[in-house]
Amino acid sequence: MTFLIIEGGHALAGSVKVKGAKNSMLPIMAAAILSSEDRDVVLENIPDIMDMHMKKNILQSLGLKVDYGESTLRLNAHDLSNYTIPAELMREMRSSIFLMGPILARLGKVRVTYPGGCSIGPRPIDLHLKGLEALGANIWEEKDYIVASTSGLKGAEIHLDYPSVGATENVMMAAVLAHGTTIIHNAAKEPEIVDLQNFLNNMGAHVRGAGTESLRIRGVETLGSCRHRIIPDRIVAGTYLMAGAITGGQVTVQDVIPSHLDAVIAKLQEAGVVIETGEDTISVLNGQLKGVETLRTLPYPGFPTDLQSPMMALLTRAKGPSTIVESVFEARFKHVKELNRMNAQISVDGRTALLAGSAALRGAEVSATDLRAGAALIIAGLAAEETTVVREIQHVDRGYERLDLELKKLGANINRITNKLSLKTGI
Ligand code: UD1
Q1: Under a CB-based contact definition with an 8 Å cutoff, are residues 362 and 9 in contact?
Q2: Span 220-246, pLDDT tens digits
Q3: 26 lines ligand 1 (CB under 6 A)
Q4: To test ligand 1's pocket by mutation, which of 52, 94, 161, 164 has the most ligand atoms within 8 angstroms of CB?
Q5: Does the beta carbon of 329 sit less than 6 angstroms from any atom of ligand 1?
Q6: Overall pTM > 0.85
Q7: Disulfide check for 273: which of 79, 188, 268, 339 has CB 3.0–4.6 Å away?
């Protein structure tokens, strides 16, 4: 069992470099399947995180050659042969669902199970399936598997009921090799969609409109390999800024695209945090934390749901109450129970969390219920009196490269313990 032990109360100081975005890297790794050329797709700025290794295993099981080293992935899908994603690998990560589009486009058939991933409430895939059906896929269930097949995808006009990030990506990846033109209305506008568009176009695709709510994709016959640098991880950047702010420290995140964090910066400023931005840096400077009237998570360019829990940890310490509304995912408040074990004073009513503010956080034994919940508990631990123990840290390792070591370099008193014994017998 691996857990983190944090002694709170140390102001963080210094800078940290941010690597490529997990949520850009995962669909782009899937999109590498679309290249039939016997030459490597090269992806740079790749973080060494568990989700990358899991995705690498899945792609290898499909017949791709995949190598990782020095922040670079090399993928070759020339020999793609298998259209079934093994159930045990599929269960490990939700983002496997967007392998459906590219596998279907390359092989005309794909077999997957319902995806796994973080436990943050029901995460249906109806929009993915409807989109693929609109492009001419036949989809049916076979025991525990969802099977899709086609004798040739055809361009179509698709209206997404919700601007789902994953569904937009899945349909984009299928449509680039479809016959004719596809238009996706109400598409997601996240920076990761723009990165995927740029990658696909580098491979020879014809995609326009990413970053707006309407995407236009003209299908091409084949796609080849290319070299691409993944955009910086705005969620990782936001996490470090919040970690710095809760400790009253001064932290700079480097190698970021500040405009990707506009909504986050605005909310941090509303919460009294002093922020300075440079060309590719953002710094938090010491400020007096105060509560915010309403923070509502929204699709981009709104406040990202992935930073809701770290921001909640920060706001527990602010002077005055705050209200947080989670409008993207149901049941993404599992961290509240754990934060309250640290004396956070939060109550939940449906999708709304009410924070009393001015909480004197106290160290406790808590569990990371999902990736971002884990980040929130670590942030709270940095500002809590005495010792915080964060268990289930494997969730955090899915999306943060060496988070504990980077925080240590910034001055946190944080240690990773790997122990075969249970905590009760240990500490
Ligand atoms: C992606 C991100 C995740 C982020 C989320 C929202 C990746 C790997 N993950 O997840 O970190 O929190 O965007 O910014 O990029 N929905 C449906 N039907 C569908 C698909 C989605 O109802 O077919 C609903 C979901 O249940 C959820 C909402 O749409 O309530 C948003 O989901 P979506 O944008 O699809 O998120 P993901 O792509 O899963």
Answers
A1: no
A2: 999 999 999 999 999 999 999 999 999
A3: yes
A4: 164
A5: yes
A6: yes
A7: 268
